[in-house]
Structure formats: C-alpha cells, structure tokens
Amino acid sequence: MDALDRLTGTDDRIGGYATAVVAVAAAEGALAKVEDELYQFANVVDANAQLREAITNRSLPVENRTELVRDVLGDRVHPATLSLVSFLIEADRARDLTKIAQAVVAIAARERQHEVAEVRSAVPLSDAQRERLTQALSRATGRQVEVKVVVDPTVVGGVVARVGDEVFDGSVASRLVDAKQILGS
C-alpha cells in the first residue's frame, strides 16, 4: 500500500480516476485551478446532504445530476473542472468524489514535491492569510506545504491544520481547554 492509498484509504479505482483527472487538468494547463476547485466542491458536497443525495442518487437520470452540477458550478469554475465533475457523475463515481478529490490533491502535491495541509477555519481565509499560514506550516514541518482550506463552522475561532499525521490546533476552543487544564479546573 503506497502513501496515496494510506492517505485516501482507497483502492486502485480511486487512484485511477484521480490520475486521469490530474492528467486532463494538466493537459488543459489548469491543474492548480482544477485541483483546488474540485477539492472545494467535494467539501461543499460533503457538507450539504441535499446536494450529495441529488448527485449520488442513481434513481435520478444522469443528465439531471450533471445539469444540477452545471447549475451549481456554472461559470464559477474552470471549464475543465465542470467537465471532470460531470464525467465522474456519468461514470457513477459521485459517491467517491471526496476521495477522488483528496487523491488528486495528493498526486498533484507529490508531483510538486509538496505536502498537503488541510486547514479548517470557521471563515474563508484571505490570500494573505493563506500565504502566512503556508509559510508558518512550512517552517513548522520543515517541508514545502500547500494549504487547502475547508470552511468548517464547528471550528471556534482560529484554525486547525493537519499535515500528514501532525495536527496544529490554533482554535480558540483548544486554547480554552489548555487554559482550563493550566488553571486546574
């Protein structure tokens, strides 16, 4: 089992689809954009039960499911992202969207000799905040890091970052737990 399999807990099928997505996005000259958009869309689908049910429901015609994706994503994403998400739905891989997106990110980062940092924040981060966080995590881990932000309303202030097996919890909730332990309560 290689690092990709351990990261995503997947079989060869997921890796195969992810490799194909990377190849198409790279051929279109849009790998970084497609990678980021696919990752973000997969997280939106994970967070929205109605959307997830709609695109994974095999009793609905494929055309309806891909049309829904076109309506949701529209002009907000690169055309290759829209085509690749539609392809995954048509290939009956919508249930694997998150794992495929994670594998795409892992493959692309590995090709760039980078590590992926999944950062959870209650609010979207600005480009400047992302850059500072990327630099800080790179220094902390001693590796080149790429930040992928997931907006997670359960994070109370600050961010929680995971780079491989390392977790950096800078949330307010974590600081309150630390303070409570220090105060002996």
Summarize the structure.
Helix content is 61%, strand content 12%.
Description:
The chain has 185 residues and is an alpha+beta fold. It folds into two domains: 3-108, Peroxidase, domain 1 (Orthogonal Bundle), CATH 1.10.520; 114-183. It is 61% helix and 12% strand. It has helices at residues 3-8, 12-27, 31-47, 49-56, 62-73, 79-90, 97-111, 127-141, 172-183; strands at 115-121, 145-151, 159-163, 166-169. Strands 2-1-3-4 form a four-stranded mixed beta sheet, sandwiched between helices. Strand 3 and strand 4 (166-169) form a beta hairpin. Helix 3 crosses helix 4. The model has no long low-confidence stretch (mean pLDDT 88).
Give the fraction of residues assigned to helices.
55-70%
Total E-strand runs = 4
Distance between the termini: 45 Å
CA radius of gyration is: 18 Å
CATH fold assignment of the largest domain: Peroxidase, domain 1
What order do the helices and strands come in, and which of them pair?
Layout: H1 3-8, H2 12-27, H3 31-47, H4 49-56, H5 62-73, H6 79-90, H7 97-111, E1 115-121, H8 127-141, E2 145-151, E3 159-163, E4 166-169, H9 172-183
Parallel strand pairs: 1-2
Antiparallel strand pairs: 1-3, 3-4
Helix pairs in contact: 2-3, 2-6, 2-7, 3-4, 3-7, 5-6
